[in-house]
Design goal:
The structure is a single chain. With about 160 residues, this protein is mostly helical. The protein is built from 6 helices and no strands. About 50% of the residues lie in helices and about 0% in strands. The longest helix is centred in the last third of the chain and has 21 residues, at about 140-160. The termini are far apart.
Length: about 160
């Protein structure tokens, strides 16, 4: 330690001298890592001594196996059993036999006090259950009739609002 200078100034002076000794500015971090130089990957070797990809790969894993033990492979899990097939949905076909305007109005649950939003919601709910595309093939004509009558009933109720 120089007289009249603090420890911090001495450290700064030492760092300046070390940086001045570096051959390339900014390379100090890479050249000071022990064991990791350009020769590790074979760039400084003669062309006849260079390894191809497979040899390099094998040499790397040969080297690393001395340093790090390979991880143990987990035991194979038993295969999961297949889920049971879904049971076919049972459709209540009795509703397709109700084709009068009164029965359909009752199924829709039309009320004189329904608002426009409630009528639209009731129309969608009715269509979700009674749409011909969802009906069994033998009941599609009845489902079409029910949907037409339901749409007429809801449209009439909307006009009255």
């Amino acid at each position: 330690m120089n007289p009249g200078r603090g420890t911090f100034e001495d450290v700064l002076e030492r760092v300046r001298h070390e940086r001045a000794d570096d051959p390339l500015p900014g390379s100090a971090f890479w050249t000071r890592i022990r064991g990791l130089n350009a020769g590790f990957v074979g760039t400084n070797s003669k062309p006849e001594q260079r390894l191809d990809g497979e040899q390099l790969h094998a040499a790397y894993y040969d080297y690393i196996s001395d340093v790090v033990a390979p991880p143990e492979k987990p035991a194979a899990l038993p295969p999961k059993p297949a889920p049971p097939p879904p049971e076919p949905a049972t459709i209540d076909i009795s509703m397709f036999k109700r084709l009068s305007r009164g029965e359909i109005a009752k199924d829709i649950n039309l009320l004189a006090s329904d608002t426009r939003a409630e009528l639209q919601r009731k129309r969608r709910n009715f269509a979700r259950i009674n749409h011909p595309d969802r009906a069994p093939a033998e009941w599609r004509d009845a489902a079409t009739t029910r949907m037409m009558l339901a749409n007429h009933l809801v449209d009439d109720a909307l006009r009255r609002i």
